[in-house]
Design goal:
By secondary structure, this protein is α+β, with helices and mostly antiparallel strands. The protein is built from 15 helices and 19 strands. Strands 1, 2, 3, 4, 5, 6 and 11 form a seven-stranded mixed β-sheet that branches. The model has no long low-confidence stretch (mean pLDDT 75).
Length: 670
């Protein structure tokens, strides 16, 4: 049964050591791999995201530059067309019909003609005439050689359409819009409106108004209007997985219109997170955009479209706009996710390999340990002749040799212990007698303090009574029968005074037993006496005595009483066990003794009263005299006693005794 228990214990220990060998390797490797993978994933994600953002920003800047160039070219071509002699002469001839009419009169005339046209019920014939006249043919020829112009129209000074290409009639400006544009064109300025987005054609267009002037100094004859599309630029972009969009923004709102890819195109603006702070008008940059309604997260670069227009005689009407190119964030996370999964798979294989290797290494290492364990068990059961035989050539073999040497020493020690058994028994009896004497000394110290208090209270009134008795005897005549009674009273008073003097002598003993004392020896004898009692209370004793400690001139019995009081207090403070530390040292002409415990400590409000007579925190178990008596004894030798304590962490009492030279010691004794 016992052998079976041993085998079970050995197997359990083997498994425990195997875990200690293998588990840290596995946990450490797994933690390192996981942490490295996460850190690498985050770092790579950040780098790839920033790289993609910079790429999208460059793409947006390139798109913005192309659109700037395209728009600049369109304005130049329209300006050349508006300055052609055929168009200018035709519009000038048309302008003669208005003569010197004011703008208001021209507006009235146009309204009347429009009413007559609607009444004639022949609007289609008029539209056909607008597209089939010589100027319309010129517009058609111009549009065929300049891609991007969807609609072209020539308007006279009153805003009446003279010739058209495309759907110019349906998109012709309203009268109030025309007069606003005409007011700007009178100064020779070109007017460009903000982009518009149509679902039907799935494109973005801007409206361009170029003035037709009679000459550089003359007034406005009319205008050349066009709807210019950027489809030719967007269609040339070679990026199937990129998003192309325009951003219209001002101080109040931001609207994003997506033009590519086809599955995301919409004539209405796409909503995106308003938390994006980097998307500001007239700024370059890139940012993450959270597109709503299934759009997901994209990395978007943006660049404003404005710098080329500012160099020309151009007036832009509308919100600030920017070119935007974006890519789904999955372009960053997709490859990283695949790489991360691959790393985790490889890491799992590495962990399996490490675990297998660790188990094999642990089994090989644990074989000599099991032999060592069995040998130690044999020695521990009393077989001191057993020797452990291990030939591993490492630290375990060295440990086995040390155990063998230990067994040899234990054999010799066992014989010595048997010889000293009787000596120890005699020493124990002696220590018990000494313990009884020390306990009696503590009780006597407490009684002496009480006696001093009583003597002090009696002595003063006793002196007064004695004085009055003396006065009464002086006033009595020799024949007074009470004189004899007074003599008896005086004798009894003297007897009481003698008792009081003996009480005082008991409370404050003389110094006739002062001698040169080695404090280390006193403490060693006292701790030897108390070691068994403290051991039963589960209190560990730690000593640190300074070597070559100078002797001090004190009473051995009194210092033993002081140390005993402090150690007993420490014992009471460690009701559940703890550690008692006793240290001695020499410092600046004084011998210092520290007695420290790991008990409950002393509250700060009690420290100032701890050396007061009859002050106790032990209830009925204490008299409150131990520390006050100790304080008086130490002070009697010009020493100091202090305490340092923190509640819950224990207390340290420090005693300082002056070192007295032999010459001074002889004077004290004399």
């Amino acid at each position: 049964m016992i052998e079976s228990g041993r085998q079970t214990s050995r197997a359990s220990i083997s498994r425990g050591l195997s875990k200690k060998f293998v588990l840290p390797i596995i946990v450490g490797a797994a933690a390192t791999i996981v942490w490295g993978a996460i850190f690498g994933y985050y770092h790579a994600y950040k780098l790839r995201r920033e790289g993609l953002g910079a790429s999208m920003e460059r793409a947006a800047e390139s798109l913005s530059a192309q659109m700037d160039t395209s728009l600049e070219t369109a304005v130049e071509l329209m300006t050349q067309l508006a300055a052609s002699a055929q168009i200018r002469d035709t519009v000038a001839e048309r302008d003669k019909r208005y003569g010197s009419l004011s703008n208001a009169e021209m507006s009235e005339l146009v309204l009347q003609e429009s009413a007559i046209l609607r009444a004639s019920k022949q609007p289609q014939a008029l539209l056909d005439a607008l597209k089939s006249n010589p100027i319309a043919d010129k517009l058609k020829m111009f549009a065929s050689g300049a891609p991007g112009f969807r609609v072209l129209g020539i308007t006279d000074r009153a805003g009446v359409l003279m010739a058209a290409f495309g759907e110019a009639a349906s998109s012709h400006p309203k009268p109030e819009e025309w007069w606003q544009v005409a007011e700007i064109m009178e100064h020779g300025k070109v007017v460009i409106s903000e982009p518009t987005f149509t679902e039907k054609t799935v494109s973005a267009t801007v409206r361009i108004h170029v003035p037709i002037m009679a000459s550089e100094s003359a007034g406005l004859l009319g205008g050349l209007d066009a709807e210019y599309s950027f489809d030719n630029i967007i269609s040339q972009l070679d990026a199937e997985d990129e998003i192309v969009a325009f951003l219209l923004s001002d101080s109040n709102e931001r609207r994003l219109y997506i033009l590519s890819p086809p599955d995301m195109v919409a004539s209405k603006p796409v909503e995106f997170s308003e938390k994006v702070e980097k998307v500001r008008p007239k700024e370059h940059g890139w940012s993450l955009l959270e597109l709503e309604k299934g759009g997901g997260t994209v990395v978007a670069g943006f660049a404003p479209i404005e710098h080329s227009l500012a160099l020309r005689s151009v007036v832009y009407q509308g919100k600030d706009w920017s070119a935007v190119t974006a890519a789904q964030e999955s372009r960053v996370t997709g490859p990283l996710n695949s790489l991360f999964v691959g790393i985790l798979g490889f890491s799992a294989l590495m962990l399996v390999a490490l675990s297998t290797g660790g188990i094999m290494l642990a089994q090989r290492t644990l074989r000599p340990i099991r032999v060592l364990q069995e040998g130690v068990q044999e020695i521990g059961q009393g077989n001191l002749e057993h020797r452990i035989d291990i030939r591993s050539g490492d630290e375990i073999e060295m440990l086995a040799l040390e155990f063998n040497r230990m067994a040899e020493r234990m054999q010799r020690t066992q014989e010595q212990l048997q010889r000293r058994g009787k000596e120890l028994e005699q020493r124990v009896n002696q220590l018990r007698r000494l313990q009884a004497q020390l306990m009696q000394s503590e009780r006597m110290a407490a009684t002496g303090e009480l006696a001093a208090q009583i003597a002090h209270e009696i002595n003063n009134p006793l002196g007064i009574i004695k004085n009055y008795v003396g006065i009464a005897k002086m006033l009595m005549v020799e024949e007074d029968p009470n004189r004899e009674n007074m003599k008896i009273v005086d004798q009894e008073i003297n007897r009481i005074a003698g008792i009081v003097r003996r009480l005082l002598k008991f409370a404050k003993p003389g110094t006739e037993d002062i001698q040169s004392v080695q404090i280390n020896q006193v403490l060693e004898e006292l701790l030897a006496l108390l070691r068994g009692q403290l051991f039963r209370r589960k209190i560990e004793i730690s000593t640190e005595f300074a070597e070559n400690l100078p002797e001090v001139s004190v009473s051995t019995d009194q210092m033993r009483q002081v140390f005993l009081n402090l150690i007993k207090n420490a014992e009471d403070a460690m009701s559940d066990g703890g550690k008692l530390s006793v240290r001695t040292r020499y410092r600046k002409g004084r011998v210092e003794i520290d007695i420290a415990d790991t008990g409950c400590g002393i509250p700060s409000e009690n420290i100032k009263n701890i050396f007061e007579p009859f002050f106790t925190t032990k209830g009925v178990k204490g008299t409150g005299l131990g520390l006050s008596v100790s304080y008086g004894i130490v002070k009697n030798y010009n020493g100091e006693i202090s305490v340092d304590s923190e509640p819950g962490k224990g207390a340290t009492f420090t005693i300082q005794l002056p070192v007295v030279s032999e010459k001074v010691f002889q004077v004290i004794r004399s």
